[in-house]
């Protein structure tokens, strides 16, 4: 770490068996940037790399504001000693808008050196409190089930009454109506039961490219017919530790979501992208240790993105921005990715003047 000669931390040398400063800095669970007196980034830890979707190597030496735009009132309120802004949106160089608690402090005895911490801050509850995720799911489930089951049952009941009165020439048609509606209810229940399947997935070292190609061809032959699906692949991507069937289900679901929101756009475009993120390690759940997740797979589209009021709840069951949506697709995607040891994130990111919806999947690589 390129600190001044006097050093940033005055402390007795750590025992030989203990972690060094660099290891401790990298392991901090809070995103941290170190800024030198020239206003350039000297260091960024792993949590910061994940939050900003930018590697330390790429950020090092860059002007601070070329990587991260501080809060709007930063220049007016900063007094040279420190600055803090809570629950604010900032914009990263890659265009992602992030809600954080932003704290900047000066380093004592080292003029010009600063440390910036970015505490990821999910949107606060509205005044008067907000429903918990569990409560939202329960309310959503009740509403969805009332709509999806009550309506078919009404049709089944009417058809059965007509059959009871003789039915006549309409008998076969009424019988088919009953069969169709019962099958529709059964399919809905099957989808809900997917969440109760606790059997471990069959993880194996897998080349993802044949699976991505298959998902792309299925999409273009059906729900994404007439759209452009662009590929931006890292040719050196190593084998990934996944369940091939679960991975294919995840990709088809994300591609279908993207295609649905692009209907009616003049130039609909979906992009599949892969990359290897060296040093990327994250916690896959609260209280869990950090795990290396260097395999990045992106599904991007040039659509409008999720409505702002549900963007932070997309992976909760029964939350949907579609009028007829059931809110089961993305939660199932999140479950399958988590069962494969990875994570999935949603964001809106800007490249130049273009803004895209991005679903980012991070997965473990297979052992060498």
Mean pLDDT across the residues is 77
**What is the CATH top level name of the largest domain?**
Alpha Beta
Choose one word for the global shape.
Answer: elongated
How many DSSP helices?
10
Structural class by secondary-structure content: alpha+beta
Low-confidence sequence ranges: 3-10, 122-132
Fraction in helix: 25-40%
Q: What sequence of helices (H) and strands (E) makes up the elements?
A: HEEHHHEHEEEHHEHEEHEEEEHEE
What share of residues are in beta strands? 15-25%
Strand order of the largest sheet: 2-1-6-5-4-3
Task: Characterize the largest beta sheet: strand count, sense, and whether it forms a barrel.
Answer: 6 strands, antiparallel
How many strands?
15
Brief sketch in words of this structure:
With 368 residues, the chain is an alpha+beta fold.
Write structural notes for this entry.
With 368 residues, the chain is an alpha+beta fold. It has three domains: 21-120, PAS domain (Beta-Lactamase, 2-Layer Sandwich), CATH 3.30.450; 133-196; 204-363, 2-Layer Sandwich (Heat Shock Protein 90), CATH 3.30.565.10. 34% of the residues lie in helices and 24% in strands. The chain contains ten helices and 15 strands. The protein has helices at residues 21-27, 46-52, 56-59, 64-67, 74-77, 133-164, 171-193, 208-221, 244-262, 329-339; strands at 31-35, 41-44, 68-69, 82-92, 97-106, 114-120, 204-206, 228-232, 240-242, 269-276, 281-283, 290-292, 295-301, 343-351, 354-363. The strands form four sheets. The protein has a six-stranded antiparallel β-sheet with strand order 2-1-6-5-4-3. The relative contact order is 0.11. The model is unreliable at 3-10 and 122-132 (pLDDT under 50).
């Amino acid at each position: 770490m390129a600190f001044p000669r006097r050093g940033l931390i005055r402390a007795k040398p750590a025992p030989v068996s203990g972690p060094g400063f660099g290891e401790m800095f990298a392991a901090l669970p809070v995103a941290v940037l170190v800024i030198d007196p020239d206003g350039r980034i000297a260091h960024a830890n792993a949590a910061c790399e994940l939050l900003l979707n930018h590697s330390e190597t790429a950020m090092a030496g860059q002007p601070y504001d070329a990587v991260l735009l501080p809060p709007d009132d930063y220049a007016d309120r900063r007094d040279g000693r420190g600055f803090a802004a809570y629950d604010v949106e900032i914009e990263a160089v890659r265009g992602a808008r992030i809600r954080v608690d932003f704290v900047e402090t000066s380093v004592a005895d080292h003029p010009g050196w600063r440390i910036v911490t970015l505490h990821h801050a999910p949107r606060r509850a509205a005044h008067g409190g907000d429903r918990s995720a569990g409560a939202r799911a329960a309310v959503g489930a009740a509403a969805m089930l009332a709509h999806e089951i009550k309506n078919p049952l009404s049709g089944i009941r009417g058809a059965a009454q007509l059959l009871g009165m003789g039915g006549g020439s309409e008998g076969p048609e009424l019988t088919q109506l009953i069969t169709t509606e019962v099958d529709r209810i059964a399919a809905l229940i099957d989808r809900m039961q997917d969440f109760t399947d606790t059997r471990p997935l069959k993880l194996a070292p897998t080349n993802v490219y044949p699976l991505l190609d298959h998902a792309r061809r299925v999409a273009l032959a059906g729900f994404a017919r007439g759209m452009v699906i662009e590929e931006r692949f890292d040719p050196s991507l190593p084998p990934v530790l996944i369940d091939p069937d679960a991975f294919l289900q995840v990709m088809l679901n994300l591609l279908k979501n993207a295609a649905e929101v692009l209907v009616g756009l003049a130039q609909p475009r979906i992009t599949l992208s892969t990359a290897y993120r060296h040093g990327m390690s994250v916690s896959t759940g609260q209280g869990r240790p950090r795990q290396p997740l260097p395999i990045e797979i992106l599904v991007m589209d040039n659509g409008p993105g999720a409505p702002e009021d549900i963007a932070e709840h997309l992976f909760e069951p029964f939350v949907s921005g579609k009028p007829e949506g059931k809110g089961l697709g993305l939660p199932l995607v999140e479950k399958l990715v988590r069962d494969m040891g990875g994570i999935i994130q949603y964001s809106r990111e800007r490249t130049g003047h273009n803004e895209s919806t991005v679903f980012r999947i991070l997965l473990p690589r297979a052992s060498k």
